[in-house]
Q: What sequence folds into this?
């Protein structure tokens, strides 16, 4: 039996300030990087940015907002949770480490790399211990070209030292490792830069007040052309992928105040670095690569924060120019990478991010925009507790729409209870959530997969408590049907290589359109009249569909008139249907002859996925009824007036002077009533060079 409870969340209007976090003496003595140390108060935690700044609110007003949540009805696997020493950053991964088809679980927590079976037992050869402390998630891929993947991690010590470790699946070190690299911040990235079948390791190096970007081969040697300098300290992991369209990947990295793009040889691309406007700076929000405008080229999306409060989401082309509609602003700081997918089924990519501020009271939000920078319906979602990680995206419940899973930085101190939250695409809480943990989920992104091949989604996550130096690793069993194509972001930065490449496929809706006249044949008298017909649109595909529907008419003159009605963003679930009975009025001013009346469904005006049509005739033309218009009734009991015909059957060709012309000419014409005129311009070879100055004339 399932229950629901109402939680009252308090939205607090704030004036934000920033301050430097003073590291407690006992924490500094441990050698742990102070920039990955949590500050905890009133059950909430905060992580300073890469320069040690913390976002604190100055509370000045409150507003209550109510959410209804379902109680946790997702079960923990036997053998979990597993309690380990220290705390986690950016989550774990699920990967295959042995000969069977089941997946194993890998976390890098503190000084220990844990490799676990789904029953909670350790994989043979694991755990492995490192000298220094974790600062990100493990990466998984074949770095030496032997056909078998390896596990790669980076670590740090007191902001000056750090190693890169690489292990075979049996726990033995890869030849050439560890590398005494220095302080590398965040998760390593794996990518094949030279197309030789072996993945390179991409990471950064911090030596305040500057930094570098490094690339290593799978044997521990430095890749030619690297390292490359940056103007400030590095602030996040890389993204690696093609942003120029030449089929060769680029490396994208962030400094505190800029974004850099290099080719594989270390050459800086034209237009970069992109130096941050609006006093924005970067921390932890790794760049994401996606063809946001569907022009065949990946764009670069990344989040920022402003010292005085607030943040921005930027979208850049591969030449460093900003994409139209961007940047978009958030109320508070952004730490997580952007989550990108077809969230609401309209086949337009959407961008989702959460923000964070240090507060014991919920006052942060999940923001959503489409590819054009327009806010999604019912966004932002909140107020919520601070969201520090990337939002996981997946269609968990099989409704064809994407759900969102976020970390939550609160913990009930008396019980150590933390939680993950999940929302539907419309902002409503997902049934059976939140999922509770022991410890806060701050900076612990979930991992979504089917670890035991039972056909159902499993959820990997963790809760930790920095003050007591422990983490609990959780593995949950769900009743969600596992479909790998329905999981957009299964782990940090889209895959176990963490390259930040969004791989989403446009799903063409499968629709059926039926347009049926009532009492055919339809003959309209010369003075005008009306006819009735039915519209039926059905989603016959396997996923929800969002589309446009419009009606137009081909006139006896050979031109197309309309849309007489346009309905945008119609959303139908699988098997869903729209039925309407409509009445169309035809004015007496409409010309005599045969008309083709058509229903289109798709994406207005250019993409038609399905259509249906019928013909009607008009017996004559009466200019005296021109003011009646082409009115349509019945869709929502409203009238849809359309453009009226000119009300005359006399047509005159009017010359312009001079003709041919360059650069200007004069044209005079008359209309019996106000209307839109389309002016076409042709060159001397008869080629149409486009319409100019369309506007209403009187």
A:
């Amino acid at each position: 039996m399932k229950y629901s409870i109402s939680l009252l969340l308090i939205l607090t209007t704030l004036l934000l300030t920033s301050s430097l976090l003073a590291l407690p003496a006992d924490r500094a003595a441990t050698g742990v990087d102070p920039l990955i140390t949590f500050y905890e108060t009133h059950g909430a935690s905060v992580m300073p940015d890469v320069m040690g700044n913390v976002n604190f609110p100055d509370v000045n007003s409150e507003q209550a907002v109510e959410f209804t949540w379902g109680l946790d009805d997702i079960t923990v696997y036997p053998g979990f949770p597993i309690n380990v020493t220290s705390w986690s950053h950016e989550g774990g991964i699920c990967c295959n480490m042995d000969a069977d088809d089941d997946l194993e679980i890998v976390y890098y927590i503190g000084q220990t790399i844990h490799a676990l079976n789904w029953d909670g037992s350790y994989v043979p050869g694991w755990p492995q211990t490192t000298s220094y402390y974790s600062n990100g998630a493990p990466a998984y891929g074949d770095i030496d070209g032997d056909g078998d993947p390896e596990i790669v991690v980076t670590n740090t010590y007191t902001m000056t030292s750090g190693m890169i470790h690489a292990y075979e699946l049996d726990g033995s070190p890869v030849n050439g490792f560890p590398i005494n690299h220095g302080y590398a911040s965040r998760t390593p990235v794996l990518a094949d830069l030279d197309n030789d079948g072996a993945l390179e390791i991409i990471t950064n190096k911090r030596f305040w007040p500057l930094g570098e970007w490094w690339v290593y081969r799978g044997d521990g040697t430095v890749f030619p052309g690297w390292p490359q300098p940056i103007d400030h300290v590095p602030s996040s992991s890389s993204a690696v992928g093609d942003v120029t369209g030449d089929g060769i990947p680029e490396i994208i990295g962030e400094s505190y105040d800029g974004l850099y793009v290099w080719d594989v040889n270390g050459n800086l691309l034209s237009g970069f670095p992109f130096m941050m406007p609006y006093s924005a700076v970067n921390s932890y929000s790794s760049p994401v690569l996606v063809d946001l405008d569907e022009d065949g080229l990946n764009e670069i999306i990344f989040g920022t924060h402003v010292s005085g409060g607030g943040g921005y989401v930027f979208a850049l082309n591969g030449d460093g120019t900003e994409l139209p509609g961007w940047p978009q602003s958030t109320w508070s700081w952004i730490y997580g990478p952007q989550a990108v997918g077809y969230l609401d089924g309209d086949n337009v990519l959407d961008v989702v991010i959460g923000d964070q501020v240090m507060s014991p009271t919920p006052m942060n939000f999940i923001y959503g925009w489409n590819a054009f920078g327009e806010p999604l319906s019912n966004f932002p979602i909140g107020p919520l507790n601070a969201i520090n990680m990337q939002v996981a995206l997946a269609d968990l419940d099989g409704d064809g729409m994407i759900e969102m899973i976020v970390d939550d930085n609160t913990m009930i101190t008396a019980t150590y209870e933390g939680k993950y939250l999940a929302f539907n695409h419309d902002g409503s809480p997902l049934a059976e959530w939140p999922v509770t943990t022991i410890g806060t989920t701050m900076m612990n992104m979930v991992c979504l997969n089917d670890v035991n091949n039972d056909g159902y989604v499993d959820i990997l996550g963790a809760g930790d408590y920095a003050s007591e130096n422990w983490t609990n690793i959780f593995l949950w069993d769900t009743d969600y049907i596992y479909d790998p194509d329905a999981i957009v972001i299964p782990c940090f930065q889209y895959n176990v290589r963490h390259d930040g490449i969004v791989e989403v496929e446009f799903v063409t809706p499968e629709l059926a359109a039926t347009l049926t006249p009532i009492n055919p044949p339809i003959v309209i008298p010369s003075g005008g009249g009306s006819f009735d017909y039915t519209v039926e649109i059905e989603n016959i595909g396997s996923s929800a569909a969002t589309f446009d529907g419009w009606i137009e008419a081909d006139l006896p003159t050979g031109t197309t008139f309309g849309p007489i009605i346009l309905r945008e963003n119609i959303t139908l679930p699988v098997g869903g249907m729209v039925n309407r009975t409509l009445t169309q009025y035809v004015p007496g001013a409409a010309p005599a002859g045969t008309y083709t009346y058509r229903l289109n469904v798709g994406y207005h005006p250019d993409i038609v996925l399905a259509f249906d049509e019928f013909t009607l005739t008009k017996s004559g033309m009466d200019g005296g009824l021109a003011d009646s218009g082409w009115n349509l009734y019945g869709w929502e009991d409203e009238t849809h007036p359309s453009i009226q015909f000119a009300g005359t059957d006399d047509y005159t060709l009017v010359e312009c002077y001079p003709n041919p012309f360059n650069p200007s000419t004069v044209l005079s014409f008359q209309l019996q009533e106000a209307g839109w005129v389309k002016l076409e311009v042709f060159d001397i070879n008869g080629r149409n060079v486009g319409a100019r100055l369309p506007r209403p004339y009187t």
Remarks:
- Helices lie at 25-28.
- The longest strand covers residues 53-70.
- The domain at 70-494 is CATH 2.130.10.10 (Methylamine Dehydrogenase; Chain H).
- Confidence is low (pLDDT under 50) at residues 1-39, 58-71, 641-651, 691-698.
